[in-house]
Every structure is written in structure tokens, then in C-alpha cells.
Amino acid sequence: MRLHRLELTAFGPYPKPETVDFDELGADGLFLLHGDTGAGKTTLLDAVAFALFGRVPGARGDVKKLRCEYADPEVPTEVKLELTVQSRRFRIVRSPEFDRPKKRGGGVTTQPAKCSLTWLEGWDGEGITRIDDVARAVEDLLGMSYEQFFQVVLLPQGEFARFLRSDTAEREVLLEKLFGTERFLDVEKWFRDKRVAAGRVLEERRKGASELVHRVAEAAGEEPSFEPGWLEAVLERLAQAVREAAAAAEETAGVADGADALLAQARVQAEQIRRVREARELLERVQAADSAAWFAERDAARRAAPVVPAHAEIEKLRQSYEFAVRDEARAAEALASLGYEGSSLREDAERCREEAGGLSELAAEAERQQADVRKLSVLKNSSHQVERRLLAVSAELEVLPDLLARCRAQLDAAVEASGRLESLKARADAAEALPAAAEAVDRTKNELHQAIDVHQKAKDVLQQVRQQRLENMAIELAAALKRGKPCAVCGSPSHPAPAQPMLGGVDAAGEEEAARDEQSALQRRTEAERAAHTAELRIQACWEALGSDEPAAVLAEYRAALDLAHTRSQRQNEFVGLEAKAKQLATEKAKVEQDLVGLRTEHTSLVAVVEERGARLEKARGEHEDVLTRRDHLLRLAKALVELDERRNARDNALARVREQEASVAALAAEAGFPDVAAALAAHRPAIKLQALDERIAAWERARASALATLEELAGVDPADGVDLAEVTAQASSARAAASQAATRLARARAALDRVSELAARLRAEWKSLEPLEASYAELDALTDVINGRGQNSKKMTLRSYVLAARLEEVAVAASARLHRMSQGRYSFVHSDSAGARGTRGGLSLDVLDDYSGRSRPAKTLSGGESFLASLSLALGLADVVANETGGALLDTLFVDEGFGTLDSDTLDIVMNTLDELRAGGRVVGLVSHVEELRQRIPTRLRVRKARTGSTLEMSLA
């Protein structure tokens, strides 16, 4: 990494933009940043760190206050750094978060932090503007974090001295950040996680084996045990129990089979006796039943079966005859209502139809007559409506000329108002602007009076300041006097009693400030005069536009003209509509008059036709209302005559069918063997009762046959004999229960043996598979303890601590070489890997070996100068080791900000020779110090001095 250019604005003690050209400063490889204490030397290194990482080292980074308090509030805080890393040149611009005045209103607003990275050479990629992306890009390019950077490139005040005196825990934290040993921490964690996972798996397997042991004990009905041989003993006891249960089951099964045979024989004998007894009782009940009456009733019902449906048909035919008689009566009544008194139905019906046919032609004329009469009524109504419409149109035409004249006058007035509207609007605008113009005149006059007063006061102050400066000019001239140089007034090189500064005196700066205040007040006065003159011109223009009229009258006239002009389009549309309506009404009136003439002519001709046809129809209607009514009467009479004749024929046919069916039923009853029809109907039984009778007879026959068959089958059985079945059943049940219990015990014993044998096989397999897991876990557990500083690890060092101890040993070797030289062979570093007190981790102890005494001692016992030498040596050694760790290509630039003031001249020479050697290979080394002797030894290329309002930079290339 090589720095080229640094620009900072409003940063730290620097209120104005400052620039540092590191290419010019580092031309000789070694330069000094010199200045008084508190001038801001370290701030330059803070600016470099802030540009790269957005933070500054040490306690200054905890305060997070980077903005200059002397800077102009409008000037933003900004740091620009241009550098080259890995042959890539780029520029970083970074601003911290700070408060700035609001652009509108009072108060302040927080300006958020921002950052950007721009590539200049060696890379064609796009720039980066997000803070997180810039941070990742810088760390990738440098190959180190900000902690490593502050220990390798930028060595801040007190940081490596703190590292020298720190304890093991603090030193471990810093070394971890410098050397990036997170991967070894990951290894430790990996082993711990691996052991936990393996332990979890082993514990699960052990738990499974333990569960199998408990399941074996539960299946065997014993207490679980983990003693050797317990499983084999359990299996042997279960096998012996199976053998004993099998012998007992075989013995009880033989006894139960004999008892079952005796029980079966007793049950057969008891069943035979019961059947004989039941057969005899059934035969007695069958013989006592009246079976002959059942057979006679069934035969009579079967013979009467054909007579019943034939008799039911008689009832249906009688109902049909009664319906026919009622229909005949209704037809005769309807014929009587038509006034018929004859007896020849068919002949009279033919005569009526012929007479109605003769009236068909006149019926058509009657229908036309009715239509024409209705049409006469319609024509009369239409004529009345047309006459009313004609009167209405005529009335509208009479009033239209007045409406047209009135609308035309209103339209002309609206047109005239539209023409005057523009001139009236200018005057109305002047009337509306008049109050605001008057208010503006009053306001600007007041502002002018105030501006005049302020300017006059500022002018008086300026005159007083100038007078005071003239009075104190001797003091000002005395401040410019220098020893041995002539006075600008008298020319004397000696100045025995120059005037002394007095409290409250005025100098050139005070006069310039008063002059600026007077010019500012004069400018505000000029602006106020200009504003007052503009307001006077505006109100004068308003009154010129109004003339002698009142503003209210002008506004009223304008609003009236505006309202009237707005009606112009409406009046125009109304006038055009009235003209169109007049033309439409004239056309409509002519058409209505023509329609009225046509209607009256048609009505007159139709009246004559209706009167002539009405005379013919009057003669043909006879006693009826009209011809159509007479024809309808004749047709209804003919239909009624034919219907009565048909009803009488139907009545006679129905009576003949009833007589025929009665004779047929009497013949069927005699043929079935009954004396008359009534006897046959009495012998009839419904189908359900006949079915029940058949079932009763069949059941009687089955019962008789069953009883006789049972008595014949069991002829040798005496129903008086008896069998004690309860005692035999009890003996068989007792024997069978004993056999069942013995069989159950045998099944349980065999099931227990089978279950325990299966679980035992699984348990032996589980124990065998656990052996390699136990061995593997024991090995992993021991190795994890060693890696994490426990167990057989006598030094109590973790793997990460071991690596850090190796790195620290390298640092001690590299630092000892420089310390040995700078201390003139007295001191060197001693690294120890022994464990700490009370079993704490070791490996990171670092002491100083004093060659004078031959003993090592803590670094805290060194003096101030010795501590500086040891700290600087340790920092440079640490930088060398870290650089080698990161590739050794990043140390083109090195800054040292440390207390050189604690060294004597000889030691300072040795230190400077050591630092001078760091320039080898093109490295640039920058020192930050206020020690004057360093300024004499190193050409001062950059000097920092305090100004009245902040620090400034002076670059000298001498």
C-alpha cells in the first residue's frame, strides 16, 4: 500500500480545506510531521484511518466527534484519500455523520454519513457508493482488518505500549484479530461439536440398549440387571417353565376329553326322552281339533269363487245405467230451455241446420256492419282530437312573435356586455389590487424607516471604530516593530518604550468588520427604498385605471357585465330554438288541417253504407236481436236435439246389459251347486282368509305326520325315564376349565420364551455394534480435550492458543533483534509457553530479559524510555510478522506516532538508525513528533501549526 494524496475539510482541528501530498513528502523515504502539542499532527493519521475504515484508532474513536468546531456550518466535513494497493490506484471520499443548519427555517438537521470509491488506474470496474461495499472492498484489497492496520501500518500513540503491558487475555484478543486465527477456533469448535454429536449418538445407542434390557426383563417378568450371564439365566428359566406347562396341559386335556364323552352321551338320552314326550302331547292336540269343518268351509269358498266377480260386474252395469238416465234428464232440460215442444228429434234437428245455413251470408254482412259502426265512432273521435290540436297549434303561433322579439333584445344586450368586458376587467383588477397595494405602501414605508435607522446606527459605529483606531494607532504600529529593524514612523532601529496593547482596543480587523456591517445596512436600506418606490408606483397605477369612479361601483359594474356576457350563448340558443319552433308549428298546422278534411270526408261516405245495409239485416233477424243471434239459436237447438236422442239410446243399451248380466250370474250359482246367488255369496271367503284356512289345514296335517314319525322312530324310548344332566355338565365344565387353564399357561410360557429370545438376539446385536462406537468416542473425547487445553494437555493450551503462541514467539524473535540493538545489547524479549497460575491457559507470556542481571522481568518494570524502545521494537516486530502472514506486499508506507521525547540523544540515534533501515525496498516511513531534535535530524516536510480558529498545514521541501 502506498499513499499519494490526502485532502481533508472541516475535520478535527482543520476548519478549511487542507492537502497533504505524500508523494512529495516520501521522496526521501523518511519524513517528519512536526508541530506543537495539540496542533493536530495525529489528526492527519486519523484522517487516513477514517478514509480507509470509517473509524480512528484509540480512545479518539470512542468519542465519534470528528467535525471541526471552527468550521463554517455550511461547509461539509469530508476526507479524500488517493492510494495504490496491489497495482490498483483509487480514491476514497468519506464524510461522517454531522449536524448542519436547515436550508429552510431554523434549527439543524443530521447529515448522514456517506462514502464512495472511484477507480483511477489498474481497474476498469464501476465505482462503489454504499458504505458496506466500500468497507468490504478496502479489506479485500489490504488483506487486513482495521485492527491489523493499526498495528502494522499506522502505529498510534500508546497502542503497542498497551500491548506490551497487557495480560494474557487481552494479548490473546489482539493477536486473534491480527493473525486471523478464527479458522483454528473453528477447528476447536468443530471437535467440540463432533464430540457432542458423537456423544449424543452414543448416548442414544446406549439408551436403546438399556431399553432393550428393560423390555427383556418386562417380558420375562423379572427385575432388569446388567450383570454378566443374566440374559442366559433368564432364557434357561423360561425354557424350564415351558416344559413344565406342556406336561400339565397334556394331562388335563385327557381328563377333559373323557368328561366331554360322558356329557355327550347324557345329552343324547335326554333329548330322545324330550322328543317322545313332545310328540305324544302334539298328537293329542291334533286329534282334538275340528278338522272336518275346516275342509267343508274351504271347499264351499272355492266353488263360490267364480260367482263373486260376475255379481260385482252387475253392480258396475247398474251404475252405468243410472249415469245414462241422469244424462238424459239433463239433455231434456237443456232442450226445454230453448223452447222446443216437438217430438221428432232427428227431423227437427236437420231442419234447424238447414235454416241456419241460409243465414250464413247475412251473418257476414252483420259482422261487417258491426265493424263499420265501430269505425264511425273512431272517425268521430279522431276528428275531435285533430280539431283540438289545430286550435293549440294556432294559439302557439300567435304568441311566438312576441317571444322572438324579447329573446332578440336579450341577445343584443349580452353581445354588447361581451364587447365591454375586457375594458371593465382592467378597471376591476385595479380595484381589487388597491387594498393590497395600500398595505404594501404602508409596510415598505415602515421597513424603510427601520432600514434607515439601522444604517445610521451602523454608520455611527463605523465612525466611532475608526476614531478609536486612529487614537490607538500607536499601539498597532508598536505591534509591528521588530528588534533591530527601523520604525516605519521615525526610522529608529531602537524601540525603548513601545506602546502596550490595551484591553478593548480596536485593530484593522475590527474596523473591517464595522465597515462590512455598515455596507450591509446600506444595502438593506437601498433595497427598502427600492421596494417603497415600487409600492408607490403600483398604487398610483391602480388609481389611474379607476379614474374618478369608486372601486365598489367599478367592481359591481364589472360583475354585472360578466354575468350578462355569460348568458350570451344561452340567449343565442334560445333564439335559434324559437325560430325553429315557429317553422315547425307552421308545417304542423298545414298537416293537421289536411288530416281534418280527410277524416270528415271518410265519415260521411261510411254513414250512407251503414244505413243501407242496416235495412236488410233488420228484416232478416226476425224475433231475435240480430241475424247472428238468430243463427246461433238455430245451431244450439239442432245440437240439443241430437244430444237428447243420443242420451236416450245410451240409456236403453245400459238397461239391456244389466238384464243380461243378472241372468248369467244366476246360471253360475246353480252350476256351482248353490240354491241361489245369495247362498253362493255367503259361502265366499276373501283371499287372505282362504289362505289362512289353507295354512291351518296344512299345519294340522304336518303336526300329525311329525308326531307319528317321532313315535315310530323312538318306539323303544320310555318317556317316564329321567337323566341328571346338570351333574354331568358340571363335571365336564370343571375338567375343561382345568385343561384350558393349563393350555393358557403353556401358551403364555411359550410366548414369553419367544419374545425374550427375539429381544435377546436384538440386545446381543446392539451390544456388539456399541463396541466400535465406544472406542471411537473415547479416542475423539481425548483428542478434543487435548485440542481445547484439557485432559492430557499439560500446558493447558488450546489449539488456537498454541498457534498464537507460535506467532508470538516469531514476534519475540523479530522484536528482540531490534530491541537488542536499540538497547545496546541489554534487553531482549523472552516468550514462555508454560501454564499460568491456578491452571490458567499459558503460551502468551512475554517478558524482558535483562542482560545485566541475567534474569527476565516483567515489561511493566521498564522505565519510560526503555518502555518506548521495547514497545517500538515489539510493534515493528509484530508488523514484520503480520506482513509475512499477509504476503509481505502491503508495507510500502509506515507511520509511527509515539513518544520520542522520552529518549536521550544516543538512544535517539540508535532508534533513528533502526527506522532509517525501514526505508529499504522503497518503503516510506512517516514520523509524528514535536521533539525539536527530530526536526534537526530529519528534513521537516510537513509542519502543523495552530491558527486562531484552527490548525493549518505548512509543507516545506527544504
UniProtKB/TrEMBL annotation:
<keyword id="KW-0269">Exonuclease</keyword>
<feature type="coiled-coil region">
    <location>
        <begin position="575"/>
        <end position="602"/>
    </location>
</feature>
<keyword id="KW-0540">Nuclease</keyword>
<keyword id="KW-0378">Hydrolase</keyword>
<feature type="domain" description="Rad50/SbcC-type AAA">
    <location>
        <begin position="5"/>
        <end position="180"/>
    </location>
</feature>
<dbReference type="InterPro" id="IPR038729">
    <property type="entry name" value="Rad50/SbcC_AAA"/>
</dbReference>
<protein>
    <recommendedName>
        <fullName>Nuclease SbcCD subunit C</fullName>
    </recommendedName>
</protein>
<dbReference type="Pfam" id="PF13558">
    <property type="entry name" value="SbcC_Walker_B"/>
</dbReference>
<dbReference type="Pfam" id="PF13476">
    <property type="entry name" value="AAA_23"/>
</dbReference>
<comment type="similarity">
    <text>Belongs to the SMC family. SbcC subfamily.</text>
</comment>
<comment type="subunit">
    <text>Heterodimer of SbcC and SbcD.</text>
</comment>
<keyword id="KW-0175">Coiled coil</keyword>
<dbReference type="InterPro" id="IPR027417">
    <property type="entry name" value="P-loop_NTPase"/>
</dbReference>
<feature type="coiled-coil region">
    <location>
        <begin position="349"/>
        <end position="379"/>
    </location>
</feature>
<dbReference type="GO" id="GO:0004527">
    <property type="term" value="F:exonuclease activity"/>
</dbReference>
<feature type="coiled-coil region">
    <location>
        <begin position="651"/>
        <end position="710"/>
    </location>
</feature>
<dbReference type="GO" id="GO:0006302">
    <property type="term" value="P:double-strand break repair"/>
</dbReference>
<dbReference type="GO" id="GO:0016887">
    <property type="term" value="F:ATP hydrolysis activity"/>
</dbReference>
